[in-house]
């Protein structure tokens, strides 16, 4: 697979990037990485604390920095990204240079069902959740589509079905399946 065999998952909050990413990595014997986790580890703070203390623009700068650090260093990795990551053109370009980008597209109602009562996402606190999600999805959907190599409409799919679809798409792109044997990969 091109771009060091990396698979990148983008999409709105609650689109299933983490659950899909973890199962996908396990199935393909890839490493799983998450940009939010990397940022929290580097900063020693939760995402919500970073937003509160330094603001969203600082967090966005950390997101770009994280991609710049990962560029060229990742191999056979499934990278799950924060929901806002692909919204800047710079980040979208970096993501495409790192791996094949899959947009896990999800509708407002599914998101609402999953994120009701969530306290970890600073952008969804205070105010009307439905209104916020609707507005953000409208703004972001074209940006996600622009950043993606492959778009998967996930509304009616289980995590396992999405994983299978990603693997099928990778196979179609490369003309070959994902090797789950590390030794075989190394010999190439
Ligand atoms: C954000 C999504 C979050 C996290 C931060 C901002 C966004 O990640 O990066 O709260 O702008 O959509 P998840 O998509 O993993 O929830």
SSE pattern, N- to C-terminal: EHEHHHEHEHHEHH
Helix-strand makeup class = alpha/beta
Query: What is the beta-strand fraction?
Result: 5-15%
Uncertain stretches of 5 or more adjacent residues: 183-188
Question: What is the first-to-last residue Cα distance?
Answer: 11 Å
Q: Number of DSSP helices?
A: 9
Average pLDDT over all residues: 93
Widest β-sheet, arrangement of strands: 2-3-1-4-5
List all distinct small molecules, including ions and cofactors, that are bound in this structure: shikimate-3-phosphate
The gross shape turns out to be globular
Radius of gyration: 16 Å
- Helix share, percent: 40-55%
Number of β-strand runs: 5
Model description:
- This protein has 188 residues and is α/β, with parallel strands linked by helices.
- It has 9 helices and 5 strands; from the N terminus they run βαβαααβαβααβαα.
- The protein has helices spanning 17-28, 35-43, 47-54, 56-70, 89-98, 108-115, 129-147, 159-174, 182-187, and strands at residues 7-10, 31-34, 77-80, 100-105, 150-153.
- The protein has a 5-stranded parallel β-sheet, sandwiched between helices.
- The longest helix has 19 residues, at 129-147.
- The protein starts with 6 loop residues before the first strand and ends with a helix.
- Mean pLDDT is 93; it is low at 183-188.
- Residues 13, 17, 36, 47, 82-84, 121-123 line the site of shikimate-3-phosphate.
